[in-house]
Design a protein that fits this description.
The complex is a heterodimer of chains A (113) and B (542). Chain A is 64% helix and 0% strand. Chain A has 113 residues and is mainly alpha-helical. Chain A is elongated and about 65 Å long. Chain B has a domain of 213 residues. Chain B contains 22 helices and two strands. In chain B, strands 1-2 form a two-stranded antiparallel sheet. Chain B is globular and about 70 Å long. Classes of the chains: A mainly alpha (113), B mainly alpha (542). The interface between A and B is medium-sized, with 33 and 31 residues.
């Protein structure tokens, strides 16, 4: 389980960083999305990976080892919402940039023109 | 009365949030109610900021003790709930921030708030993020307020539209989103090692971790530090700044003069709380990084050809100076650095505002200007109707001030004195006390101390700034051809004069100001007081 999650985070981060460094705005936004997935998974895994345990302590909870940390889950939720909103804003920006400059290069102009 | 005072720390966050939301209910055309609301809201925040500054000096007994005020949101006690913590430094930052916003809001009445929609709401939301970032005592909450601030600043940077702004906002958003991801990674790692997000609780647990956990926490802190340094515009993470600040509208750029200081504030706070951390908030490397930032600022100032770009590099230089003072590890330098920070925030902001007016000197208000060329797309998007002509001559707010050129020239000189640190303004006192503290910290046996580098760059930075500003000033004011006397409205001139007057007041009242800042620096030196007040008796128990 750990190795699968670690690999997923690693692959997502590597692809995200590579796309982030590309010159097209669409590649950049996909790169940022992949990075945000990687970061969300990372935060989640920082609460330790556990299967089939509830995140809520109730009166019947006997063993605190069989209890998932709820805080990272709350953090991930917040991070998802914020990342979603900023990505949407970024999307609007790249469409505006495309409309104003006529190119989808991140600098608003092709390199050799 | 006492109940109100108890809720004081939350006011600088709740009031702008409410005002910003209420402003959305008024149509863009109803300018006076909107203006009344936004100015009233900002004045309330200013009053709250000043009262917090007074209360943290313990001049009023029985409210806060030891200069630290703690507000548990929803009465959930730390470390389980989120707390707002007011100490002298955060109260000072909130007050400086709101003062700056007041000047920017009044300035924008002349022209800027009609260049796009929802300008005043966005400024209020920016204030929510900034005030919250200064006040919060919770690491993840700091992230949330950072994001609120950034979201508002993206929209504000875009304010007025145009291809140049769009391009620069694109870069700004991409860089800051990446920095936000690093922030999250850092926070998550620190949480996994320490099991808490409360900054005071992290500081308590820092020394008690097992070696494996400590490694994770230090790595997390290093990644977190990178995110802060991106925001603080430390070299080599600052290439987004000059272009963005140059493209931003004048009042927006003035507000941005303080957004870089949020990163500096976060580093100050973290280095105060995590005193025994080796990375990244203590240690030599921050000092050398800050020196490199200063060099970057100096070179940029000398190379800049336009005034806004020059001031943007001056912002980088001031960030570098404060970081160098923090990284030098000399406690005596903290108070002068804070004085320098406040002076340079107001100086740079006044300069950005001035730039907006001086721009009109060079070119007649033709329709070729980039702002006039493209009508703000938001107007059509929000179906507000036709955008008003920003250059329309019959302006109802316009009370032109006499002797516009004399005012511009005088304000330019004052701002130049402030930024370069020449007497008699506040910049001089700040630089003088910084150099004095650095000289005191030199090794007594005459061997080479790294403080020499800082002294050299401080003086060199002032000199380079003087050369660059003289050159731009000569071209701006003394060139005979192609110049015309601009019409300056009193609503534009007054904020610049206001900011400069504050700096003059800081010079006149340098004694009391330094006393306050000394105690603020002392509070940073003794994080135990902060921790004890936030956590109560939990701090002592192992």
């Amino acid at each position: 389980m750990e190795i699968i999650v670690a690999l997923a985070i690693g692959v997502l981060t590597a692809s995200g960083v590579w796309l982030l460094l590309r010159p097209r705005t669409f590649q950049v936004i996909i790169g940022l999305s992949l990075l945000s997935y990687a970061v969300n998974l990372f935060i989640f895994s920082m609460g330790r990976l556990k299967v089939d345990v509830p995140p809520i302590v109730s009166e019947t909870t006997q063993d605190f080892a069989r209890f998932a940390d709820p805080v990272p889950q709350a953090l991930v939720l917040t991070a998802i919402v914020i990342g979603f909103a900023t990505t949407a804003l970024f999307l609007v920006l790249i469409i505006a940039s495309r409309g104003m400059t006529g190119t989808d290069h991140v600098d608003g102009q092709e390199r050799d023109s | 009365m006492n109940a109100w005072v108890r809720h004081l720390p939350v006011l600088p966050i709740v009031v702008p949030l409410l005002v910003g939301a209420l402003l959305l209910l008024f149509a863009e055309t109803r300018r006076w109610p909107r203006l009344l609301l936004t100015v009233t809201g900002t004045l309330v925040q200013l009053a709250a900021g000043i009262s917090m500054m007074v209360l943290t000096t313990d001049s009023v007994p029985d409210v806060w003790s030891e200069g630290v005020g703690v507000y548990a949101i929803g009465s959930w006690q730390a470390p389980f709930g989120i707390v707002l913590v007011v100490d002298r430094l955060s109260a000072l930052m909130v007050t400086a921030n709101v003062t700056l916003a007041l000047a920017a809001i009044v300035y924008s009445v002349g022209r800027w708030d009609r260049m796009g929609v929802h300008y005043h709401s966005l400024v209020q939301f920016l204030l929510v993020g900034l005030n919250g970032a200064f006040l919060t005592g919770d690491l993840f909450n700091l992230f949330v307020f950072f994001e609120i601030m950034l979201a508002a600043s993206y929209a504000l940077l875009l304010h007025g539209g145009g291809p140049q702004r769009t391009k620069m906002t694109l870069h700004f958003v991409a860089v800051n989103l990446t920095a936000a991801f690093m922030f999250l990674i850092g926070v998550a790692m620190i949480y996994s090692a320490s099991g808490t997000l409360n900054m005071a609780d992290i500081a308590v647990g820092w020394g008690r971790m097992s070696p494996e956990d400590h490694e994770i926490a230090e790595t997390g802190a290093a990644i977190l530090g990178v995110a802060f340094l991106v925001k603080a515009a430390a070299w080599p993470l600052n290439f987004w700044l000059p272009g963005a600040y140059q493209a931003a509208g004048a009042p927006v750029a003035a507000m941005f003069a303080i957004t870089t200081k949020v990163g500096v504030y976060a580093i100050l706070r973290a280095s105060s709380l995590l005193e025994d951390a080796t990375t990244p908030f203590g240690g030599v490397w921050l000092f050398y990084l800050a020196l490199a930032t200063m060099v970057c600022g100096i070179v940029g100032m000398l190379a800049a050809r336009q005034l806004p770009r020059l001031v943007a590099f001056a912002v980088i230089l001031s960030s570098g100076t404060i970081l160098a003072a923090v990284g030098s590890g000399v406690p005596a330098m903290t108070a002068p650095a804070l004085f320098y920070m406040v002076g340079s925030i107001f100086g740079a902001a006044a300069f950005f505002l001035l730039t907006g007016m001086a721009d009109r000197m060079r070119e007649a208000p033709t329709r070729q200007g980039e702002a006039a060329a493209t009508p703000p797309p938001t107007y059509t998007a929000f179906a507000v109707g036709e955008p008003p002509d920003p250059y329309s001559p019959d302006d109802e707010v316009g009370v032109a001030i006499p002797a516009a050129m004399a005012f511009l020239g005088l304000a330019f000189i004052c701002c130049a004195l402030l930024l370069t640190g020449l007497p008699p303004l506040a910049g001089f006192i700040a630089k003088f006390s910084l150099v004095a503290a650095a000289v005191d910290a030199l090794p007594s046996d005459g061997s080479f101390g790294r403080e020499w580098l800082l002294i050299l760059l401080l003086l060199g930075g002032g000199f380079a700034g003087l050369i660059a500003l003289t050159r731009v000033g000569v071209r701006l004011f003394w060139s005979v051809t192609g110049r015309q006397t601009p019409r300056l409205w009193i609503s534009e001139a007054a904020p610049v004069a206001f900011l400069i007057l504050i700096c003059i007041a800081m010079t006149v009242a340098a004694g009391p100001a330094m006393t306050y800042l000394d105690s603020a620096a002392d509070a940073l030196e003794t994080p135990d007081v902060y921790i004890r007040n936030v956590l109560g008796e939990r701090a002592e128990s192992p």
